[in-house]
Amino acid sequence: MRAADWCLSSAGAAVVLATSSDEQHPAENMADGSSETFWTTTGMFPQEFIIGFPKCVKISKVAIQCYLVRTLRIERSISKDPVGFEQCIEKDLQHTEGQLQMEEFPLPDFQATYLRFIIKSAFDHFVSVHRVMAEGTAENT
What we know:
The chain is mainly β. The chain has strands spanning 4-5, 14-18, 39-40, 47-67, 69-77, 86-92, 101-122, 128-138.
């Protein structure tokens, strides 16, 4: 079975929660597959968003394209609802002046129905998230 990016809205993913809302830069932009569009935070930290998959997926790698994120935590849930999250990764990202941060996190045999991304701190008052990707295959459930 070919691996797919399960964070794309065209694959059935949906942003089910975002702690900031901006009409010009809505959370749905993170799932449109474009690095040109983005979601922006509008206040204090931490900030978070949750992406739901249409089914349980086996993820091999998670990646994020963002700007000015200092500390990122990624959690997963295998519940039918976005509850019962467990921490998978927490990392301090490198500051990349004037360009997007591109981070990849290999996750061998990692199952999830939801991913929660928590931006714990930033290099500035606001951050942007341009894309999130979760490469993997559908579980036979």
